[in-house]
Amino acid sequence: MLLALLVLFSTVSFTIEKHFCGDVLVDISVFSEAQKCATETMEILMKKTCCKDEIEVVLGQDELKFSSFEDLHFEQQQFVTGLAYSYINLFVGLEQLFIPHEDYSPPNLVTDIQVLDQVFII
C-alpha cells in the first residue's frame, strides 16, 4: 500500500503561485490563482506596477516503467513463485485438536473436605 501511494504522489503535478506587492508576500496558492492585492487595480489604471506574480510548476513523473512476470529471468520467476507460495501457506490454520475430557463435568461438592477435617494451609 505504501508503494502504491508513493507511485501516486510521484506522478502528481501541481503549481504554486505567489503574489508579491513590492517585497511583501501577499498570497500563496497551490491549486488555484493567488489572490491579488487591492492596490493592483489602481496601479493598472496609473500604468505603473509594483506587484508581481511568481509561478512555480512542480512536474510529476511522466514515464512509468511497466514490467510483467514474463520479463523476469527463470530464476527470478522461481524465487517470486516460491515466496508467494510460502507467504500464502504461512497463514493456513492448524487442525482442531481432539480434547478427550471436553464434555467432562466435575462431581458436585457436598461438603468442603478441608474444613471438615480442619486441615488448613498456612
From TrEMBL:
NCBIfam families: HYC_CC_PP
Name of the protein in its database record: Uncharacterized protein
Lineage: superkingdom: Bacteria
Lineage: Bacteria, Pseudomonadati, Bacteroidota, Flavobacteriia, Flavobacteriales
Matching Pfam families: DUF8199 (PF26622)
